[in-house]
Design goal:
By secondary structure, this protein is an alpha+beta fold. Helices cover about 20% and strands about 25% of the residues. The radius of gyration is 18 Å and the shape is globular. The structure holds copper (II) ion.
């Protein structure tokens, strides 16, 4: 499975077949989950990768921060992140994931963000004014965690005036 995920360029069909085999084995009781991988962490990571080799992620804004579900991603696997526009409002829709070169203002009908995390560790997602914040983890394809922690960007000059610059964006955790 490591190689299948790592070489995901060919991986769609192969991964789908592997997934079918995995589930059919499990369902028929020929092998237990533990016997297949022997690692609960790896199971959890693999389960996020859909048969087409993409990890589907939902992004919302709850309890004054961005929330990714699942909040742990796998390095090297393309992410398709669907933004919940019901909770992500105002300038919170101008989304930045600096470590992976993402900056996109989402809108009705254009609420998908795609990127491939190419580093493992803990990373920040923020609105472009760095007011709305959140974090997520990226692990190696085999489930290994990294101690790397993105240095939180200092609040840029002007960021503290988010909403006071005349734009009235309303971010900064008021909802
Ligand atoms: Cu903002």
């Amino acid at each position: 499975m490591k190689q299948i995920i790592r070489y995901s360029a060919f991986g769609g069909a192969t991964l789908a077949i592997a997934a079918i085999l995995f589930f059919s084995f499990t369902a028929s009781g020929i092998a237990t989950v533990g016997a297949v991988t022997g690692n609960a962490v790896k199971d959890a990571v693999k389960s996020q990768v859909s048969a087409n080799g993409i990890q589907e992620v939902a992004l919302s804004y709850k309890n004054y921060q961005y929330l990714l579900e699942p909040s742990t991603l796998t390095k090297g696997v393309p992410v398709r992140m669907t933004v919940d526009l019901a909770t992500v409002n105002g300038c919170l829709r101008d989304i930045v994931i600096a470590s992976f070169g993402v900056r996109k203002r989402v809108a009705e009908g254009d609420n998908i963000i795609e990127f491939t995390p190419d580093k493992a560790g803990t990373f920040t997602i923020a609105c472009s004014m760095n007011m709305g914040r959140g974090t997520f983890e990226v692990v190696e394809p085999d489930g290994t965690q990294s101690s790397y922690q993105e240095t939180a960007p200092s609040v840029a000059a002007g960021a503290a005036s988010c909403g006071a610059s005349g734009s009235g964006c309303g971010c900064g955790g008021m909802r």
